[in-house]
Amino acid sequence: MIKVKVVCPDKHTRTWLSQPPIKNKAACNVVLSASKVKTSNSMVLYGCVKGIDFLKGEGITIEDLVTDRHVTINGRMKTKEPEIHHYSDHWHVAKGAQL
């Protein structure tokens, strides 16, 4: 996690975090190894599953998850994680729209 502290000339401070903290820890950092998966396409699902497993292992209940429109993640969420509301981010939805 990257933490940036900005101090104004009048001594007011503001802190910016690259990830939201949960229980005083970074939300989730997952190190992925290409040797764990067969294709770069399957790396997306592998990373998502590892992240979900990590958060659950920390005792965090996941109610909502927003990801890109990756087909394997959509399928996994429907079959293996039906209790989590899964959404696609707006940018990826708009990118795939046919005008």
What would the keywords be for this entry?
99 residues; alpha+beta; two-stranded antiparallel sheet; two-stranded antiparallel ribbon; 6 strands; 35% helix; extended
What average pLDDT do the residues reach?
83
Q: Report strand %.
A: 15-25%
The percent range for helix content is: 25-40%
Main beta-sheet annotation: 2 strands, antiparallel
Q: How many distinct folded domains? A: 1
What is the CA-based Rg, rounded? 17 Å
Describe the structure.
The protein has 99 residues and is of the alpha+beta class. The chain has one domain (24-96). It is 35% helix and 22% strand. Strands 1-2 form a two-stranded antiparallel sheet. A two-stranded antiparallel sheet has the order 3-4.
Write the layout of secondary structure elements.
Blueprint: E1 3-7, E2 13-17, E3 21-22, E4 25-26, H1 40-57, E5 64-67, H2 71-80, E6 85-88, H3 90-96
Parallel strand pairs: 5-6
Antiparallel strand pairs: 1-2, 3-4
Concise description?
This protein is an alpha+beta fold. The protein has helices at 40-57, 71-80, 90-96, and strands spanning 3-7, 13-17, 21-22, 25-26, 64-67, 85-88. It has three helices and six strands.
